[in-house]
Amino acid sequence: MRPIIWGMRYFIAVALLAATPAIADTCPPAPDHAAALAERLALLKDSASPAEAQQISDMLWQLWTDAPDAKAQALLDEGMRQRSGFDLAGARETLDELVAYCPDYAEGYNQRAFAHYLAQDFAAALVDLDRALEIMPEHIGALSGKGLTLMGLGRDEEAQDALKAAVALNPWLNERALIKEPEGTDI
């Protein structure tokens, strides 16, 4: 009877050890920057110049790209580096890993959407942008990216809605030039 008990103990110990990496390899929640984001968004709406708006936008990007932990940060940084170097396949692969690891981190989806957009895979970009905006509705980069992506899909009316939402948050956004005024309106 003793060999069976030892065998069961060994089996249980091996099973627990095998499960431990999965438990240890889970993404923590993203840092809570809600108050800082709200403060910067309010400042952005009241900014007096493009230069001031750019400084505030840079602060927003610092918050958005603050990943949940070191592993997520390394994946995000690598994916962004690859995308900047136009290794779009590599960027998407790295960002796929980030999104699988941290499914509730908006910037993973936003950056993967950017890589899809650059590869002109607008349908995949739109899926990622919608998920990023589901997590973080006031992500200006995702909103403007959604507008550009919808334009790429020929869905101009929806694109205008997304661009207007982005410009409502950042009146100095470069994409404001893409907003069409209603006919009969003087600018």
TrEMBL record:
<keyword id="KW-0677">Repeat</keyword>
<keyword id="KW-0802">TPR repeat</keyword>
<dbReference type="Pfam" id="PF14559">
    <property type="entry name" value="TPR_19"/>
</dbReference>
<dbReference type="InterPro" id="IPR011990">
    <property type="entry name" value="TPR-like_helical_dom_sf"/>
</dbReference>
<protein>
    <submittedName>
        <fullName>TPR repeat-containing protein</fullName>
    </submittedName>
</protein>
<keyword id="KW-0732">Signal</keyword>
<feature type="signal peptide">
    <location>
        <begin position="1"/>
        <end position="24"/>
    </location>
</feature>
<feature type="repeat" description="TPR">
    <location>
        <begin position="106"/>
        <end position="139"/>
    </location>
</feature>
<dbReference type="InterPro" id="IPR019734">
    <property type="entry name" value="TPR_rpt"/>
</dbReference>
<dbReference type="InterPro" id="IPR050498">
    <property type="entry name" value="Ycf3"/>
</dbReference>
